[in-house]
């Protein structure tokens, strides 16, 4: 592993530390790697070491390149300095992607607390958008004024272009109330953005990875908290794909909850949306016939279907309806193949 | 294990099935057991077998008595029939607690989908309140009209008397949109109720335990989903306490996020709240002295504290401030002992 | 779930309890289920309830039918009474497989301590062999005389017909020394039998599932111990296959470590064995060409291969050599298809 | 994190790479750290990069300092060169313990394949013994001649001074037959050494951490294999103790299975051994009274105790007998305190 430390802004004491794993040679399947850009917390007053190196390690173990950005804090934290630091870091990571062996379209940002605010800002208002964002007990709304008076509320900026997010926090966090996470989830739902979230029943603010080397083992904290680390890696593999032969495998989780706003139709459009498209309807009926009326969500008998249930079905993804109908994966792929040639008249 | 099936209402085909584990004898530490009351889903049109027995097993493994309520559905589902069925079941469980070896103050309700609506109704509007509620991809808001026109929205009924909740769902559930879970969380926060939630990135509605014997292994669903089962058991152990010598150990997670509304003060009141009480302030200063100014949330130096940070500190639980100050658990218990004799002037 | 209790032998107080999960209906993919037959421990003096019901639950959760055999103990324990009880139970399970919805070729036996001795006897000397055996801190060698003077040492009976085994114990078990498990593993290796084993660093005898409802939470025991339950289920899925559409999927782990003694050749024969067969050699060379010389076990360069390494390669399974050569799974299946038509001249 | 690379022997191309985590500052509880010394595999022909950096990461995450020794291989591998390289590395780590912030009595060696042979040699025949050894699919017996003709069989050297070991391998490893692990376990039992082992049902040789970035996700390998990493860290915490306030907590797992050969008596001597010592007997009877006759191993009734069972009891650790008698942990500590003042007449 090579380590590089680059001063991005001497006056503001901004630096980017790169932990770069080897590629090629015995890692014969790996020409490039996905990456994480870590934004430690510290109330925009400092960058916590507890949320820097310890966070990098599990992603390095999983095969990701890891970068730590120590952004403008304290008297330098006036907005948009921290966001500019992020832009500079992400731009450099992508510009040097060949040299650093990074898949430039698979770079996730990970931020904690105030760093979670910065990560959310990167996900919603930056020019160099991350491809995924992991937000640890993040500050997202107006509470940010509490640690950086000039920093913006990120929630109004959530839109269709926001990347998929992984959010975790504890219910009893008194430094950053859990509503910061819940409100952000709501905004993601409104914008049809894919996300995962884990709100653990109790624990203090700032637990980082919750390893005993970082957070005292005497801490009163839920036993599930440390799971966020492995869960976030499992989630990244679904968003970015996993290591395959030379390239990454196809992602299994899309950036949007549905494909209704895609360029072409797909089995991840809702049933109602596809049936509303004459060509789409033809494809579906070719495979399902009347099956559309025989769905058993949760195992229910068609005969018991209420109009409300029917309306639910029309809100379901075609993929799930085909799965309920026990179509083999190959057939579902055929359906998808045919739909993917039908332009989506939005 | 004994199995009992009791018909609660022949006309409405309502029944309670009890799976009763042995106590005493070789289970010498166990005179009674905590219990779960399972409410299967099925859109109030039927009670899904996929969310009945398979759900009982993991809790039986953990040592819980398990009950399955098959409540009024279809033409019998007109409200408040299902809630009355619940009342009858919970009343019977507590009335027969001695015979069935159940801790009558440790009975959790577990509901899925429409059964999750019923569980939420039990938690918010029943006479025989459960002591905890596990809500699986629950219907909570006005969407319930879609499967039972007469069923009420449970969210407005969330209040201080609502029990702790464990909520899980998938982001992409199209039958019960994830907002049903998020809105309920919000209501719990407003009422200061303890909860845990896991929103998994993707997967269909109605996955139950997600074992391959219940949900097809070909299902497009997040790899984290099956974790809800073990996580909910870990959570119950924190809410109810764990099996000890003859009785259950003391719970480590309280029903409310803070103790500010308790009868007496405690280390789980917020720092500001305790300091606002003259006697409470004396106790704290006796232990902390000026330490109150030395907190390092997220490791920050006191010198860097902004007024906003100070206001955060006053919102923190005293317990966590004492932990940040590295007070040993015993000392924290001493502080708690002294505070617990000070009446809370609300 | 239906529960049946059948008295197998009134005089000896032998009974079989059946926990039978539903099939069909909403469990539409399930016409039959694999099963476990549980043999509790108790030094052949009694049948421990701690190793009966609590053990059944996790397998029921996983979708298995569960049977508990309370066999001849105390004054009735004189050999071969317990083994006869087993034969009677297993015979009945298979005879009533249609009625009880059991895959009669997917019945595992699970025994603990003295019950582990009986399970090992079933796996090595019974007429009605189980299809897999899970042995919990088993008595396997001459130590059995300590609890049943007439019971035989099972180790000399391990042979090619012994079923795959999953063995677990703690290093510090003073009631049944860990050598009982280690010696049995050795015998399985000698007979080329597939197995998995977990020896945990410390803990007492008789911990069963190690749930706090069965084993006191104050017990001095390794934190890994409870993992045996989920690990044994994961293992069974590899030995029996998993729930698929109507039938079980193909097993991924075979009963023998290699196929060298199979009826036909396969990619699970060793490289040297296949190359020793003229037709087999042709098939391999057709796909590998000279690749046989380019293996890189552990990533090593061919040029660095010593004769000893070459001899290792000939001891490797063809499947792994093909994987090292990065052949796609489909191609490996082609190779296997061609080999599987070549009779094995033993 | 600082990275240092030190050339230990230029002629033999031997180097030590140190990954050194920060201490103090925000890691206020950490003045020093335990450490791991990693010995990659490669048949003594090379040092595999797949078993170097990827292995360091999880231990760094857990808070351990990590060192990688690239020892003498190929033409330089003639024994005792590799062992001398180890001695030099371990000596340096302990000599620079203050500078590198390492607890010099908490340094574990981790070796894979041939590196596992070297780790076993370190554990059994070195001058600078490690405090624990993690052996991954290790070569331990005469098979080592296959990759290094001059290297010794380590099994005959296992004795009372061998450190605790954690061993893992796959049953179907054809490059290093599983008997290499089993024979080593046997030797550890003979010498009363503490160990943990996991033999996974199937998988190839050389899987390292089994992350998809190191071992192809298409590999035919048991789903439990990746667990060895977290399990080995959990084990190290029990052997070394966990991070506490400034120092490590007391280990919960001892280096020997019993204390019968200790300097003083303890509750970890066997019951029979303590009762054989007049003073020891007095202490025990003071607490247990006749309780010694009322033990219920596996829950059995005293009345049913056979002489053989009684002899088992005498082979049990006193600690477990006290636990069976449901003595609270504090009382057990009292018994231990009194025994620990009684010299052990060996």
Automatic annotation (TrEMBL), chains A, B, C, D:
Pfam families: BD-FAE. GO terms for molecular function: hydrolase activity. Keywords: Hydrolase. The lineage of its organism: Bacteria, Bacillati, Bacillota, Clostridia, Lachnospirales. InterPro entries: AB_hydrolase_fold, BD-FAE-like_dom, GDXG_lipolytic_enzyme. This is Alpha/beta hydrolase. Residues 33-128 form the BD-FAE-like domain. PANTHER family: AB HYDROLASE SUPERFAMILY PROTEIN C4A8.06C (PTHR48081), PEPTIDASE S9 PROLYL OLIGOPEPTIDASE CATALYTIC DOMAIN-CONTAINING PROTEIN (PTHR48081:SF6). It comes from the Bacteria.
